[in-house]
Design brief:
alpha+beta; BirA Bifunctional Protein, domain 2; SH3 type barrels; 2 domains; 21% helix; 33% strand
């Protein structure tokens, strides 16, 4: 259980003109999708907690998501939600961009592609926030949704590229390869069986 702090607050946007993802990549943010940031207490598992909250909320409306480490929410092998976590003035800032009515980036997908019914942005945001605070075992739940555990991957980091089979996600949210090497960040590419 994650305690809701009295200082926590949420900022929601109808669209973003300067949205960004990891490594300052631009994030297209047209109207009709869900964009919000939560300011909360800094903890080591915030990115995982946020991605689980989104996954649970999608499952609640009939969509079957998976999580690609560290926090991409995937449906039918396409990205439906991006999450960026930053630390500012000692607080954790979680930015969530969920494709609801459009999929602006090539290779992405949106809720409207998957459901015939209209989804309320406000209701969906409240559901995500409720799930965020209610998750009791982040790691166990995250592992259940993970599409990366047990997979052969290439991890692109500032120190080079590394290949291996993913053995675990540890208590700090790090990706652990069978070799024992651990990663706190990096871009993960799932590889075919014959590439390692």
């Amino acid at each position: 259980m994650y305690e809701r702090e009295s200082e926590d607050f949420v900022v929601q946007a109808d669209k973003q003109t300067s949205g960004k993802g990891r490594k300052n990549r631009s994030w297209e943010s047209p109207p009709g999708n869900l964009y919000f940031s939560l300011c909360t207490e800094k903890t080591s598992l915030l990115p995982l907690r946020a991605s689980v909250a989104v996954a649970q909320s999608l499952e609640d409306i009939g969509i079957s998501p998976s999580l690609k480490w560290p926090n991409d929410v995937i449906v039918d092998e396409k990205k439906i939600c991006g999450i960026l976590t930053e630390v500012i003035d000692g607080n954790g800032i979680i930015g969530i961009g969920l494709n609801v009515r459009s999929a602006p980036i090539e290779g992405s997908i949106c809720i409207s592609d998957l459901l015939d019914t209209e989804v309320s942005l406000d209701k969906l945001m409240k559901e995500i926030l409720s799930n965020f605070y209610d998750i009791k075992d982040v790691l166990k739940t995250y592992r259940n949704y993970s599409s990366t555990l047990g997979e052969k991957v290439k991890i692109k980091t500032v120190n080079g590229d590394f290949k291996g089979i993913v053995a675990d996600i540890d208590e700090k949210g790090r990706l652990v390869l069978e070799s024992g090497k651990k990663f706190i960040s990096g871009d993960v590419i799932h590889l075919r069986e014959d590439t390692i």
